[in-house]
Amino acid sequence: MKVGFIGTGIMGASMARNLLKAGHEVFVYNRTREKAERLAHDGAAVCGSVAGCASGRDVVITIVGFPEDVREVYFGEGGILSSASPGTVLVDMTTTLPSLACEIAQKAKERGLSALDAPVTGGDTGAREGTLSIMAGGDKDAFARCLPLFEAMGKNIRFMGDSGCGQQTKACNQIMIAGALSGVCEAFAYARRQGLSPEAVMEAVAGGSADSAQLRAFGPRLCAGDLAPGFFMKHFIKDMRIAQREASEKGLELPMLSTVLSMYEELAADGLSELGTQALIRHYEA
Predict the structure, then answer these.
(1) Distances from the Cα of 12 to the Cαs of 16, 62, 94, 114, 162, in angstroms?
(2) CA distance linking residue 64 with residue 35, whole number of Å
(3) Does pTM surpass 0.70?
(4) Among this protein's residues, is 170 annotated catalytic?
(5) Considering 170, 234, 238, 250, which one is annotated as catalytic?
(6) CA distance 162 to 217
(7) How far is Cα of residue 279 from the mean position of the Cα atoms in its chain?
């Protein structure tokens, strides 16, 4: 397929590479051109604009930072909705507002396009290894058309229902991560305060009831003092705020999520938002 790919950051670059490895023709655009140009060595064609990346493609994929970025690349001047050719499938893999996903889907339909909201989870490792979990909402026929692309980027691929359902499922995912990752950080802080080796504790609980994807992903990084982003703290804050807002609109309180979010917001206020999500450990070390 001819694929336009917009957003080649930590996650997007690896996802685009996996599409290239699978034999697809990939055209890339990134606001910071240097990040897109790195993919030229892998066979991607680098575009100079959103419009140039979106026009004439079978599928256009976006994975950018924040809802305002999504809105800009879809609705802005020279954006995807005004540039994509009729029949193109638009796939937003950013974690964003369910309402925005529905708005994009409606505008796409009006212009002879199809749309999916298909956020991912699995971090930089999952993006690099092609083992992401992909949760999609929107047009079911469009999902079927895009399945070969999803299979090049992920392993656990699920169609969740109408437009916005992919984003709602991702909100569930982020709520679960907030609790699991805060538990890992608390346990490591406790271990150190009690004079235990975090490495030894991690090995002792491996395979038991306390084992988790968050422990396996971030335990070794925490032991090594590695707070570099596999997933930016600022993006996790954005995701948690979306989940909190969606819950509030339904009259649902999420006390665990609210507590973890407040801890992250304090760290961000101290200038740590560019670190990885495992930097939550700093809250306990303060």
Answers:
(1) 6, 8, 10, 21, 24
(2) 13
(3) yes
(4) yes
(5) 170
(6) 31
(7) 18
